[in-house]
Amino acid sequence: MIDPKRFLENPEEYKKHLSARGMETTVADKMFSLDKDRRDLISKVEKLRSDKKQKSQDFGKAKKSGQDTSSIESEIKDIDKELSNSEGQLEKIQKDFEDIAMSVPNYLLPDVPIGNNETQNKVIREWGKKPSFSFTPKDHVDIGENLDIIDFKRAGKVTGARFVFMNGLGARLERALINFMVDTHTNKHGYKELLPPFIVNEQALMGTSQLPKFKQDLFKIEGFPYYLIPTAEVPVTNFYADEIIEHNKLPIKFAAFSACFRSEAGSYGKDTRGMIRQHEFNKVELVKITDQESSVKEHDELTKDAEQILQLLGLPYRVVALCSGDIGFAAAKCYDIEVWLPSANCYREISSCSIFMDFQARRAKIRYRDPNTGKPVLAHTINGSGLAVGRTVIAILENYQQEDGSVIIPEVLRPYMGVDKITKA
After folding, report:
1. Which of these is catalytic: 87, 126, 193, 349?
2. Largest CB tally within 10 Å, which of 89, 166, 210, 329?
3. CATH code, domain with 67
4. How confident is the model at residue 142 (pLDDT cuts 50, 70, 90)?
């Protein structure tokens, strides 16, 4: 949630951020108008309470002196009625303001590229050499089905569309990647491993901004106040919800494997072939909780930590800074890491690394103690995929495919796999 004080001090500044995102600015006018009404009502309520206090004192004096108190009683009743009505209006206005504040996006950092859509994202850097083939490269679906390591048909039978069985060495490849990613981030990059619950409550989703705006993308568990997680970001970020962290513990760095569940409500018809867009998929998530001074630096480092997984796997990729019209609702800045897929002859997203500043921390009440003042202040949060496991499987199958249909295993994965090649049985 945006800082109400910053907004109210300069609503025109926030309008510029909304415009950069391609959004209407009228919502800012509505918030400002509600706050004016709120302040007017607060003044009115305070005056009514003061009047009631004075009339109550007058009533006591009149009664004590034996005077007729009926007119004072009538005045007090009128004040009570008006006070009750004004307090009700104030409560409604405050709720309306908070509801709108929970539904509007974050401020953008100054270096976010301005643009309308993904075509105006900015390529920051590229890494690796794209493979060249003496044959027409196949996509991961044909490769996987030919090797009998991926089965969409049977997954459709037991569940439905956009689910998959990973078979044999396909299942081992997925598991190997999970272990390799977690081991790399914990042993080399200094993250602490966390295995989170895959089910969370509504408050956790409010804390990381999936609710209320993105409810349609979530799987709600019928009959229970719980949801399946869309990403480990939700439980891991909320690990310190409503707590005050000592400054010397920062930055806190978590690496967490989880399954992720998404309804993909707004993406029907997109990427329906294969494993690009699934309702259930595995991911290793990186989460950082930092102080306010070091968050931008920590965001850059988290992005490089995610990149190193692709470097170690020998997979070509690029890093893209998302423009203002393409960036996520809660993010103040976001880098997408896109891996090369030969069958499509293009890069596809495999990680989004976002910095939220205090946007999530304000919702989740994640604070740390300022070392200078000793007072609690809002933390900054950062997260990114390190990486999406299924899309890494896709990239390995396509970039390491051989003309005979086999797939070479990247060298760093061989100790986890026990084989150096996947061949047709």
Report:
1. 349
2. 210
3. 1.10.287.40
4. very high
Q: How far apart are CA 143 and CA 128, in angstroms?
A: 23
Token digits for 363?
Answer: 């919702």
| Cα distance between residue 424 and residue 405, in whole Å | 8
Position 108 in a domain:
no
Residue 367 is a catalytic residue: no
Matching residue, tokens 């896709």 = 394
Is 352 a catalytic site residue?
Answer: yes
262 is annotated as an active-site residue = yes
- Say what the alpha-carbon torsion angle 9, 13, 17, 19 is, to the nearest 10 degrees: 120
* 204 and 320 housed in the same domain: yes
d(CA 313, CA 329): 31
Question: Which two structure tokens, joined as six digits, stand for 93?
Answer: 């206005």
E-only strand ranges, 262-322? 280-290, 317-321
The verdict on whether 162 is a catalytic residue reads: no
pLDDT at 425: 79
Is 154 a known active-site residue? no
Output phi, psi for 43, to 5 deg.
Answer: -65, -40
Q: Are residues 146 and 73 in the same domain?
A: no
Q: Which of 71, 21, 13 is nearest to 330 (CA)?
A: 21
Going by C-alpha positions, the residue among 423, 391, 388, 418 that lies closest to residue 405 is: 423
Number of domains in the chain: 2
Check if the beta carbon of residue 339 is closer than 8 Å to that of residue 310.
yes
Helix or strand or coil: residue 357?
strand
Q: Which domain holds residue 140?
A: 118-422
- pLDDT digits over 69-80, tens only? 899 999 999 999
Query: Same domain for 68 and 171?
Result: no
Count of C-beta atoms within a 10 Å radius of residue 257: 19
The catalytic residue among 21, 262, 362, 363 is 262
Distance CA 99, CA 20 (A): 22
Catalytic-labelled residue, pool 263, 352, 354, 385 = 352
For the stretch 29-48, pLDDT in tens is 999 999 999 999 999 999 99
CATH number of domain containing 153: 3.30.930.10
